[in-house]
Design a protein that fits this description.
Shape: globular
Structural class: mainly beta
Order of helices and strands: EEEHEEE
Radius of gyration: 13 Å
Oligomer: single chain
Number of strands: 6
Largest sheet: 4 strands, antiparallel
Number of helices: 1
Amino acid sequence: MNEDVQLNFFDVPHFKFLSSDEGIVSGLSDDRVYEVKNSELIASLIKCGEIAAGEKYKHWFVGFNEIGSFIEVVFSGFDEKQP
């Protein structure tokens, strides 16, 4: 829809910027948000004690279609604003 959106993530134990040619995102469209179900990354963060098992975290890949890259983020909450 070509709308600018501002996402503010809360309680972020992990984030990483990825270029669209990296293997983990190479098959994904860079104009979407993808949620990882049964995330091995979240399981790893629980195992190392970074987050507690009972906490509700999500693992997303967010595409930036203007620059062709992604952010991988694990978070407990977010809000969305139209700038």
